[in-house]
Design goal:
By secondary structure, the protein is an alpha+beta fold. The chain has 5 helices and 7 strands, in the order αββββαβαββαα. A hairpin with a 3-residue loop joins strand 1 and strand 2. InterPro entries: Amidase_dom, AS_sf, FAAH2. It comes from Nephila pilipes.
Length: 193
């Protein structure tokens, strides 16, 4: 299948082999039906590029499907597929899933193989970019993560109850980027309490 990364630089590029994540899904019985549109080089919160154009939200085509994995989220939300894979650096799975009413998961580093993602991550960014599942039902995250992490050797029991009292959560109140609005003071107050 083609793997353009939404860029004319890779317009004719076809994958020579399955990525390890795709191979694990196929081994579990998944049938690959397509590669979908993405923001060019996976670097935007909207899925639009010169090569394939804009991917719209299937619920309201005047709205975006998000990005950068917006082609996948639009396909799943339109019931064209039950499960998909995306890559996530700064929300590229989570943002489109949010925009189209889906569930997406950015796994813990090393849990899911990330080789073969396109475009290949810069070595400095490789430890921030992860491959993860996108789906219509939360239960499917459990099944897909069991498959995707099956060769990691990590003893994780997906679907078990979590004791939130001992859970640590990382968050940032300020990113200092012209592309991201500062946190609302009401939200900051709620986070601190």
């Amino acid at each position: 299948l083609k793997c353009t990364g939404g860029s004319v630089l890779f317009e004719d590029l076809k994958a020579a082999e399955d990525s390890p994540s795709v191979a694990l899904m196929k081994k579990a019985g998944a049938i690959v039906i397509a590669t979908t549109n993405s923001a060019e080089m996976g670097m935007h919160f909207e899925t639009r590029n010169i090569l394939h154009g804009k991917t719209c939200n299937p619920f309201d085509t005047s709205k975006t499907s998000g990005g950068s994995s917006g082609g996948e989220s639009a396909l799943i939300a339109a019931a064209g597929s039950v499960l998909g894979l995306g890559n996530d650096l700064l929300g590229s799975i989570r943002v489109p899933c949010h925009f189209t009413g889906l569930f997406g998961h950015k796994p813990t580093m090393g849990l899911v193989p990330n080789l073969g993602c396109h475009p290949a991550p810069d070595p400095a960014m490789a430890h921030f970019l992860y491959t993860g599942p996108m789906c219509r039902y939360a239960e499917d995250l459990i099944v897909s993560m069991r498959v995707l992490s099956s060769e990691s050797g990590a003893p994780i029991n997906f679907g078990q109850k979590v004791d939130f009292k001992n859970l640590k959560v990382y968050y940032m109140k300020e990113i200092r980027s012209p592309m991201i609005a500062p946190m609302n003071s009401d939200i900051a107050l709620a986070v601190d309490s």
